[in-house]
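Researcher: Here's the sequence for the chain we discussed earlier.
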Amino acid sequence: MLSVSYLRQKSSRCLAALSFFVALLTTAAAGAQSVNSLEYRIGPEDVLHISVWKEKDLDREVLVRPDGGVSFPLVGDLQVSGRTPVEVQDEIRARLQRFVPDAEVTVSVDKVSGYTVFVLGEVNKPGQFTLGRYVDVVQALTLAGGTTPYASERSIQVLRRQDGQERTYSFDFRDIKRGRNLEQNIILQSGDVVVVP
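Model: Thanks. This is the structure I predict for it:
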């Protein structure tokens, strides 16, 4: 017969594991939202969904041309490559102002093209990952098969080249597993390198 303390111990472990996975799902959902609004930089061959509230004729899915531009009714050509969805929606809103006063414009990335991240060091499957969608640090580590027993999970770094400068972001995987400091689980940009010492 099973003892009460044994059952409590098992129940406690299951609850901790469940809490961890709920935290990961919450982080992934938050990450998906932030990529469309703040962090993700649009690139050639990405597919954007542009909509204007109460203007069905202006609801479009557009492919970013190799030159980084798109065409949109009443707006004409505009350069979107290297910009965030929020920056693009602000420009479309400004250009539409004389045709649609107080336009509510939404720009989201439906398909990411040529999005590559690298995961190196103490992971089970280090390498280059070319994806059709954006990922955060936890998702990239998962794609790389997770960390090895020798990994220093508190000292993971994300290396990013932006505007000709190298930026480094710290990532403490142990904190994430405990549901703390979830904001450090940033959305990766194409070309980012995750280093697990």
